[in-house]
């Protein structure tokens, strides 16, 4: 199966490896190293918005890696991060410019208090909402939070391998300071595995697990299986589009997960997909953008 998150920038998660994690595997830091690239995502989302968004809403935020990057790179930027799990979002607590909320994304943030320019639901987390009723209730709440001209964006995967089971492996360099803290040789690598262990095309329900292994010269130094296990609904692009329009959004477009171009100053440019036959691979990850 090829529909897995894009490679991340190994430097993106260095700050998550504090001295308190010496000698241990921090599953959240491994996730940031292998799955996320918040700097690139910030540029893509600003391009999809098309204006000058300053206030980010990051729902199902986990460690709020995007929010942390947003307030560091967007001039005057601030963020509202929401997650039901207090453990990962604790990494965003107390960071200037970030309001970190522990709670249900459907009710935890107030439309009048937590107005944002752009809402992001990433890493397929929209699938946590397993019924159409739950999905539309959430989307209506999200739309009310958006400022004028605001955009809601989520990602999903699809194509010929979407409901196939199996593994995909990728390797990422382990930063030297992290290797030192773990007590493994410098030059070690992380083997990241995306495992779709169950998929039902009749219900759209899938089960995915993420595994991490630290390797050096063919020797397994550390291993963390089932670091994250997800049981969720795999929403198709047409299902998401229809739900977004029913929730009151005025327009829905589909974008590739990477910008179309980046200029010499690091500004990203993105345009909607108009010809799926030539612009999408057989298996794909896309961003669905709904405009308020």
Folded structure, characterized:
By secondary structure, this protein is α/β, with parallel strands linked by helices. The chain folds into two domains: 19-159 and 234-291, Vaccinia Virus protein VP39 (Rossmann fold, 3-Layer(aba) Sandwich); 166-232, no CATH class. Helix content is 23%, strand content 35%. The strands form three sheets. Strands 3-2-1-4-5-13-10 form a seven-stranded mixed sheet. A hairpin with a 4-residue loop joins strand 7 and strand 8 (205-216). Helix 2 (38-49) crosses helix 3. The chain starts with 26 loop residues before the first helix and ends with a strand.
Summarize the structure.
This protein has 292 residues and is of the alpha/beta class.
Topology, please?
Elements: H1 27-34, H2 38-49, E1 55-59, H3 65-73, E2 78-83, H4 86-89, E3 98-102, E4 116-121, H5 132-145, E5 146-159, E6 166-173, H6 176-182, E7 189-200, E8 205-216, E9 219-233, H7 237-246, E10 251-256, E11 261-262, E12 268-269, H8 276-279, E13 283-291
Parallel strand pairs: 1-2, 1-4, 2-3, 4-5
Antiparallel strand pairs: 5-13, 6-7, 7-8, 8-9, 10-13, 11-12
Helix pairs in contact: 2-3
β-sheet strand percentage = 25-35%
Instruction: Please report the distance between the alpha carbons of the first and last residues.
Output: 34 Å
Largest sheet: 7 strands, mixed
Total strand count, please?
A: 13
Radius of gyration equals 19 Å
């Amino acid at each position: 199966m090829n529909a897995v998150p894009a490679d991340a920038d190994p430097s993106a998660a260095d700050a998550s490896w504090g001295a308190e994690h010496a000698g241990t595997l921090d599953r959240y830091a491994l996730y940031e190293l292998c799955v996320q690239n918040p700097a690139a995502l910030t540029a893509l989302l600003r391009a999809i918005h098309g204006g000058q968004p300053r206030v980010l809403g990051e729902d199902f935020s986990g460690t709020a890696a995007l929010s942390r990057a947003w307030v560091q790179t967007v001039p005057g930027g601030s963020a509202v991060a929401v997650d039901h799990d207090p453990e990962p979002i604790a990494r965003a607590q107390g960071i200037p410019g970030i309001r970190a909320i522990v709670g249900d994304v459907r009710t935890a943030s107030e439309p009048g208090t937590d107005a944002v320019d752009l809402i992001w639901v990433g890493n397929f987390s929209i699938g946590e909402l397993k019924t159409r009723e739950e999905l539309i209730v959430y989307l209506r709440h999200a739309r009310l939070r958006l400022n004028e001209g605001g955009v809601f964006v989520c990602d999903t995967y699809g194509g010929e391998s979407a409901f196939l089971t199996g593994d995909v492996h990728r390797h990422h360099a382990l930063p030297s300071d992290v290797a030192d803290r773990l007590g493994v040789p410098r030059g070690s690598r992380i083997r990241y595995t995306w495992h779709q262990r169950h998929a039902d095309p009749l219900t759209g329900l899938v089960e995915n697990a993420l595994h991490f292994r630290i390797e050096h010269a063919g020797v397994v130094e550390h291993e963390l299986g089932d670091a994250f296990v997800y049981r969720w609904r795999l929403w198709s692009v047409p299902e998401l589009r229809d739900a977004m329009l029913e929730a009151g959004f005025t327009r829905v477009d589909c974008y590739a997960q990477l910008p179309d171009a980046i200029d010499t100053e690091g500004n990203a440019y993105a345009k909607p997909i108009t010809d799926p036959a030539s612009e999408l691979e057989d298996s794909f990850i896309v961003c669905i953008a709904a405009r308020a």
